[in-house]
Design a protein that fits this description.
alpha+beta; 5-stranded mixed β-sheet; 11 helices; about 10% strand; globular
Length: about 250
C-alpha cells in the first residue's frame, strides 16, 4: 500500500490567502497571536483548509481553529483577549464541541471535537497537516484525511459537505494517506464507500488513480470511463447546475 508523495507545503495554499479581506485578517491575526502567546497549539480547518488542498477559496467569514480539548479554556481566554465576544449571545449553539467568538460580522471558531461528538481532536489534527503562509503568519492546516473524515458526517437536510469531499478527492485522491483515513473512519467505512461510489460515477478517470485496494477494501463501485468532457459536466450539473466541481472540465 504505497502512497504517492503530496505536493510540498509551499505549493499548498499558494495564492488564495491574498483573497482574505484585510478587515477579517486583522481579527484572525490577533487571535493567532494571542493563541501563540498562550502556548495554545492550533491548526486551521474549514473553508481555509479546503482552499489549501483545492486552491479555491469560499470565504465564509469564519475561521475554524482546532485545539486540543485540554486547551479549550485557554483558547477561549485568548479569543477574549483578542477582542472577540461569545456568539452565543446572538445565536445559541452547542458548546459541547465548539466555542464561537465574533467581532462585527467575522467569526472565529475554536473546535475541540466533531459536531456529532464522534471523536475529540488529538495531536494528529494539529501536527500532520502542512504549514501554510497565511498572509504574514505561518499556520498549520489540519490534515486532508481529518478534513474528509469530519465532512463525511455533514449530510443533513439543510447542508451537505459531500461536495467538498468530492473536490478533495479530485484534488488529492491518489495522494491521500488512505490506510490512515480508513483507520480513522473505522466502523463508519460505508460513508467512505458511498462518497467514493459517487466520485467514481462523477469522475471515473480521476477515480481510477485511487489505489485499487481502496476500492476493494471499502466495497465502493468504480465508474465506467466517460466518452467526453461534456458528459462529465452534465453529470456534475445533475447534482447542481451552478459551478461546483473542479474536476468536471478535465474528465
Amino acid at each position: 500500500m504505497v502512497q504517492a508523495t503530496r505536493p510540498p507545503a509551499a505549493e499548498m495554499g499558494a495564492g488564495w490567502p491574498a483573497q482574505i479581506p484585510d478587515a477579517q485578517w486583522s481579527i484572525y491575526r490577533r487571535v493567532l497571536d494571542e493563541m501563540r502567546s498562550a502556548d495554545v497549539p492550533v491548526a486551521f480547518g474549514g473553508a481555509f483548509a479546503l482552499a489549501t488542498y483545492t486552491g479555491d477559496l469560499r470565504n465564509t467569514k469564519d475561521f475554524d481553529l482546532y485545539v486540543l480539548p485540554g486547551d479549550r479554556d485557554a483558547a477561549v481566554a485568548a479569543m477574549t483577549r483578542a477582542g472577540l465576544m461569545d456568539y452565543y449571545e446572538r445565536a445559541p449553539y452547542d458548546r459541547s464541541w465548539i466555542y464561537r467568538g465574533m467581532q462585527d460580522d467575522t467569526i472565529v471558531d475554536a473546535i475541540w471535537a466533531m459536531a456529532n461528538l464522534r471523536t475529540l481532536v488529538d495531536r494528529d489534527w494539529l501536527s500532520m497537516g502542512p504549514e501554510v503562509e497565511l498572509r504574514d503568519r505561518r499556520v498549520r492546516a489540519i490534515p486532508p484525511e481529518e478534513l474528509i473524515w469530519s465532512k463525511l458526517y455533514v449530510l443533513q437536510r439543510e447542508r451537505s459537505d459531500w461536495p467538498d469531499v468530492l473536490n478533495l478527492l479530485d484534488a488529492l485522491g491518489n495522494r491521500l494517506d488512505w490506510p490512515r483515513l480508513l483507520e480513522r473512519v473505522g466502523p463508519d467505512r460505508p460513508l467512505v464507500a458511498g462518497v467514493l461510489s459517487v466520485f467514481g460515477w462523477l469522475a471515473p478517470a480521476r477515480a481510477a488513480e485511487i489505489p485499487a485496494w481502496v476500492w476493494d477494501e471499502t466495497g465502493a463501485r468504480r465508474g465506467e470511463p466517460l466518452r467526453n468532457a461534456a458528459l462529465a459536466q452534465a453529470r456534475a450539473d445533475l447534482l447542481d447546475s451552478r459551478p461546483w466541481f473542479r474536476g468536471a472540465i478535465r474528465e
